[in-house]
Amino acid sequence: MAEKILTGIKPTGQLTLGNYIGVLKHLHKEVERGDCYYFIADLHALTLPIDPEVLRQNSIDLACFYLAAGLDPKKVTLFLQSSVSAHAELNAIMQNYLYMGELSRMTQFKDKSSKMKESAIGLGLFAYPVLMACDIVLYDASAIPVGEDQIQHVELTRDLVNRFNNRYGDILVMPKAEVRKVGARIMSLSDPTVKMSKSDPKGDIFLKDDLKTIRKKIMSAVTDSGCEVKFDQENKPGISNLLTIYAALKDISIEEAEKEFEGYRYGDFKKAVADVVCAEMEIFQNKYREILETKAYEEALREGAKRAQAIANQTLKRVKNAVGLLDIE
Ligand code: AQP
Fold this sequence. Notes:
binds adenosine-5'-tetraphosphate; 3-stranded parallel β-sheet; 5 strands; Tyrosyl-Transfer RNA Synthetase; 51% helix; Rossmann fold
C-alpha cells in the first residue's frame, strides 16, 4: 500500500516564513513517495476568537498558498477540514480515549491559555489535540510533516493509536512526525528566542509582505555581539536563525552556509539572506496572485473534498464498528 502523507495548516492569521520553511515549501516533493492529504485546518482556527470574514479570507489565502507552493491538485488531495464531516464525527468518539491529564500537559495549550483569562478559554482549545489526532488517523497517515512545535501533538496521536488498537485490534495506522533537519523552528527576527508565529506576530516575515518590507525586516533583524557569522543557538540566536533561513531556502546544510559566509560582516550577510528570501518570495507571490485571480483554488478544494470524504468515511465506519456503534445502512 502507498504511504499516506498528511499535514494541515490553520488559517489563523497571515502565514509566515516559518510556516513556509517548516512545512509548505517542501510539500510538493512528497507526491514522489505516496498519497498526499493536505488540508486547511479551519475548525482548529475556531479554537481562538476569529472574525468570520477574516477566517474566510485566510482560508482562501491558504488554499492559494498551498497551490503557489507547487502542489498539483490532481496529484494531492487538498481540502478544507470543515468540508469533511468525518473529522467532527470521529472527534466525538475519540474524545473518550484521550484524557484530561495528558491534554493539560500540551505545551501549545499551556502557552496559548497562559495569555488568556480562564473564563475565556474554550473547550476546543483544550481539546485541540483530539481533533488533530482524528485529522491524522482518518487518512491512515503514517508520515506527518510538521514544524518542531507540533511533534508533541503527533506523539499524543501515537499514544491514542496504541491505546485504541490495544483495545479493539488493528484499526488505526501509527503515524510519525517528520521534521526537517534545517528549518523546523524559525524564530522571530525581533526576538530570536521565540518562535515566529502567526497568532503572536513579533518579528514575523509574512508571506504577503511586499519585497521591500521583507528586505527591511531582514536588514533590521536582531543580531548579536561579535562579528563572526557562526551557528551558535545559545550565544548567537539571531545569526543562527538567519543562517537557518538561508540554508533552508538554498537547500544546503548549516555547515555549508557557514562556509559561504566565512569572513563576512553582519551587514553583508544580512543582505545575502534578504536576496535569497526576496528571490523565492517574488516567484511564490506571483503564483499566489495568479491563483487568487483565476480562483483556481475553488475547483481544487471541491475535488479534494470529494476524495477526502471517500477515504475518511471508510475509516470512520471501521472505528464505529470497532467501538460498537450500530451500522444500519
Ligand atoms: N516558526 C516556525 N518554524 C517552522 N515551522 C513552523 N510552523 C509554524 N511555525 C513555524 C509549522 O507550520 C505548520 C502550520 O502551523 P499551524 O498553522 O498548524 O499552527 P502552529 O503550529 O501553531 O503555527 P503558528 O504559525 O504558530 O500558528 P498559530 O500562531 O496560529 O498557532 C505546522 O506544521 C507548524 O509546526
